[in-house]
Amino acid sequence: MNYESYRVVEKSPCGRYIRYNHKLGVGAFKQVYIGWDRVQKLELAWNQIENGNLFNEEANGSLFVKEPKGTPEFMAPECYDGEYNELVGVYSFGMCLLEMVTGEYPYLECSTQVHIFNKLYAGVKPASLGKVKDSRLNEIIDKCMLPVSVRPSAEELLKDSFFKPSIAVSVMKNIKRAPPPPSSSSAATQGPKPSKYVVHIGGIPVEFPYQPYGTQLAFMNRVIVTLDRAHRDGHSHALLESPTGTGKSLSLLCSTLAWQQNYKSMNRYSKFTHSKPDPQALADPIGHGGGFIPETQPLGNPDTAPPAASNGTKKKKAAPTIFYASKLLLKDQEAGCSEFKNTHKVKGHPSIQKGGCHEAHDIEDLVKVGQIVKGCSYFGARSLADDAELVFCPYNYIINPVVRRAMEVVITGAIIILDEAHNIEDICRDAGSVDVEEDILLQLQMELEQLIQSDTMIYQPLVEMTQDIRSWIARKKNTLEKHGFQHYASCWTGDKALKELQEANVTKQCFPILQECASKAIRAASEAEPGTDHLSGMAASLALQRHVKKSPGTAVGSWTQTFSLWCLNPAVVFREIADSCLSVILTSGTLSPMDSFSSELGVTFGTSLEAPHVIDVESQLWAAVIPRGPRNYPLNASFKTADSYAFQDALGTSLEEICKIVPGGCLVFFPSYKLMDKLSSRWKETGQWARLNARKPIFTEPRGGQEEFESVLKGYYSSINQREKLVMGRNKKAKGSALSDGTPLEVSNENKKEGAAFLAVCRGKVSEGIDFSDEKARVVVSFFLSLNYVTICLLTPGI
User: Fold this and answer.
1) Is the pLDDT score of 5 beyond 60?
2) Residue 794 and residue 770: Cα distance in Å, rounded?
3) How far apart are CA 109 and CA 126, in angstroms?
4) C-alpha Rg value of the chain to the nearest Å
5) Carries keyword S-adenosyl-L-methionine (predicted)?
6) What pLDDT digit, counting tens, does each position of 157-191 carry?
7) At the fourth CATH level, which superfamily is domain 6-176?
8) Global pTM?
9) Residue 585 banded pLDDT, cuts 50, 70, 90
10) 609-623 pLDDT, tens digit each
11) Were 92 and a residue from 51, 506, 531, 794 both cysteine, which residue would form a disulfide, CB within 3.0 to 4.6 Å?
């Protein structure tokens, strides 16, 4: 283009402002887009406009720019890589909007430009974004600050409902409009909608089952940025907070699997091209376009067969394994299995091999296969995990070092996702603690003494350890201090605790030997033939598991001494995990405050996110507690009153009144199946069930498997859809109808079924991961025995 200055006119009749006004703000934003519309028709390079001057108004209403310049707070990260296009302006527009709403510069918390630069590259958003209370405005600003690969263009952003004509209708005449949606007839000719969406984040295609929300895009971006940085630096960890119901679990799985697949494809490409690492790529953590940094060493000849793995070592995988850990706990009963020998038959069954009908299998599929081949489905699942790319497991398979070694879970170089991790500090403390009762130690010692003759090297050190601990307990039990009724205890911390452990011969030097002997003893017990001497399941479980609780029903009046080692610092356990794996991603709806969370775990989290909700909770959600029923009966949902017929009848009447008022779907949650069955039986006896069913068809969460549940859920959805069609039909009939005096004709809804009701159990199949958007759930009713009232939430049609 010619070397000359261009005049850019910034029309803004709003003038200077003292505080943000929503109507004036929307009007100003639209007019900025008019300017953008004009600029796009000029032969203009985007690096000729200072993005920070987007809202600056000169006295004559114009601005002259002769050379590229910029304000760091308003410049997109890609500007520093020399990439200038329209998306740079979109980013700056979001920053200017943030400044206009909050009345302060973005990144005001940063003291230097270098600090701002580091935050930009790390994907950390300005702290002032948290001051934007309007969720829709927050979402618009968040869209503008998305990574360049997923950032909307100016035209795409303008299609957002935020900019729909509400004021200054004439302004919209000069703005490009999105084409009208196709009619039902034309849509039918275009074929079915795609079953999945593909969004590109950091150059990586991420498959998603539907069009993701802005919060989900931001969530997936943070995951991919974290994994990119981990691959470059060796380790990188993330704290990601997103409110319950925003689809964070799906976002986690889609983004990590997409990164893993891209890693494999890039590894395969570099293997065949023998490419050398690019120094520029090594220095660029985010702006490398989603590509991955090659290995620093050549991967060898692709035609050469890989060397055979030595005994005890596992084959190196093409990509890091993803461990997705949840709150489930390992049960003590899982320590032994008589069908362990047929594990290979479960693993090798054709139905669960690649391409088989159960390639993506659940535990029910493995149980069926185990019954067919007479093999252990539990140990079969463990062996399948060796070659799996994605492993779902309980927390303690990963967090507890003893269980992790016993289960042979290798986390070196792995990606670990800890979902619902708001209690991870307590879980780490628990994993680093030991509680062993004296009678269990005695039983263990007796079994070990019987096995010494078979292998002295393994069992002798374990016998001596149990003897030393029991002797130490015997010496100390008469010196305990009283701490309540029939409870005596003594506690030692710091140097005193170390001295007591040395007195019991539990030292750092002897621990590796004991650990090796315990592992061999467990292995021998697992491989023992029926009828041969080996450690029992309980003793084997004690040898390696952290915590064995005493069963109820012990003899009355008997005393039990317990030897306990309590870990009070969660960083002792968590730091070992963070140093071993490639990346740890902690997610929950409640991780804040993140600074204290990070310091307690003793790990630096390079990426953090506090995402907003996908809905406007102030305008689209109403929550309340109902203390009394329709007849002023107190809804005291305690264990004492739960069996009262008066209370059960009051709950039924209250639910009927709610169903009468609220259209659409109604979700009703009970604390247990037992209470749900008890109330259902009572309501059927009194006729309350029939009255409820007259208002809304009732569906109950089944106790059975997934197939039965999906059948019930399908029936619920069908009833909701029929209700929507009925409402549309009524509207058509009522349209234009009026009485002789001109009064509009209303269609009566009396005795008409409006939607459906779904009775479910808290933490059951219905409570998480199911789509209950829009008409599927206009009200949620919760009965909790732990509270004194019934809680309801109303959801508005805007959701």
Assistant:
1) no
2) 18
3) 8
4) 32
5) no
6) 877 777 665 433 332 233 233 333 333 333 333 33
7) Transferase(Phosphotransferase) domain 1 (1.10.510.10)
8) 0.55
9) very high
10) 888 777 777 788 888
11) 51
CATH architecture of the domain 617-735+751-795 equals 3-Layer(aba) Sandwich (3.40)
Structure-token match 């028709």, residue found? 41
As a whole number of angstroms, the distance between CA 621 and CA 583 comes to 36
CA dihedral for 146, 149, 154, 159, sign (positive or negative): negative
Per-residue DSSP letter, 484 = S
DSSP string, 358-401: TSS--HHHHHHHHHHHT--HHHHHHHHTTT-SEEEEEHHHHH-H
Q: Which helix (H) or strand (E) holds 415?
A: strand 415-418
Q: Can you read off the two tokens belonging to residue 56?
A: 């600056």
What value does the mean pLDDT take over residues 535-559? Answer: 41
Q: Which two tokens stand for residue 536?
A: 């029992």
Domain boundaries, the chain: 6-176, 222-296+317-321+410-433+567-612, 437-479+490-550, 617-735+751-795
Quote the percentage of the chain above a pLDDT of 90: 13
Taking only the tens place, the pLDDT of each residue in 458-483 is 888 888 888 888 888 888 777 777 76
Q: CB-based contacts of 231: which residues, under 8 Å, 6+ apart?
A: 263, 292, 293, 582
- Across the strands, what pairs with 481? 489
DSSP 331-354: -GGGG--TTGGGHHHHHT-GGGST
Confidence of residue 546 (pLDDT cuts 50, 70, 90): very low
Q: Kindly give, in sequence order, each residue whose CB lies less than 8 Å from that of residue 745, ignoring residues fewer than 6 positions away.
A: 734, 737, 738, 739
Query: What distance in Å separates the CA atoms of residue 177 and residue 155, rounded to the nearest whole number?
Result: 8
Q: Which helix (H) or strand (E) holds 154?
A: helix 154-158
Which pLDDT value is given to residue 107? 85
**Alpha helices, H only, 602-644:** 617-620
The predicted pLDDT at position 644 comes to 86
What pLDDT sits at residue 613? 75
Give dist(CA 112, CA 108) in Å, integer: 10
Helices (H), 432-510: 438-451, 456-476, 494-503
Least confident residue range of 289-298, 337-346, 502-511, 628-637: 289-298
Of 781, 656, 666, give the one whose Cα is nearest residue 720: 666
CB 760 within 8 A of CB 770: no
Distances (CA, A) of 45 to 93, 520, 539, 589, 617: 17, 70, 75, 43, 42
CB of 773 within 8 A of CB of 798? no
CA distance 323 to 417: 6
Report residue 361 as tokens.
């299998």
Whether 6-176 and 222-296+317-321+410-433+567-612 share one fold: the answer is no
At residue 550 the predicted structure's pLDDT band, cuts being 50, 70 and 90, is very low
CA nearest to 611, candidates 75, 247, 96: 247
Q: What is the pLDDT of residues 102-123, one digit of tens each?
A: 877 788 888 777 778 778 777 7
Please count the other Cβ atoms lying within 10 Å of the Cβ belonging to residue 787. 15
Architecture of the domain made up of 222-296+317-321+410-433+567-612? 3-Layer(aba) Sandwich (3.40)
- Among 209-213, 300-304, 639-643, the minimum mean pLDDT is found in 300-304
Could you tell me which residues are beta bridge partners of residue 665? 756
Residue-wise DSSP of 209-265: SSPPPHHHHHHHHHHHHHHHHHHHHS---EEEE--TTS-HHHHHHHHHHHHHHHHHH
Q: Identify the CA nearest to 53 among candidates 79, 85, 77, 89.
A: 89
Residue 729 — very low, low, confident or very high, per pLDDT cuts 50/70/90? low
Phi-psi region of 389 (alpha: psi -120 to 50; beta: other; left: phi over 0): alpha
Bridge partners, residue 628, by sequence: 634
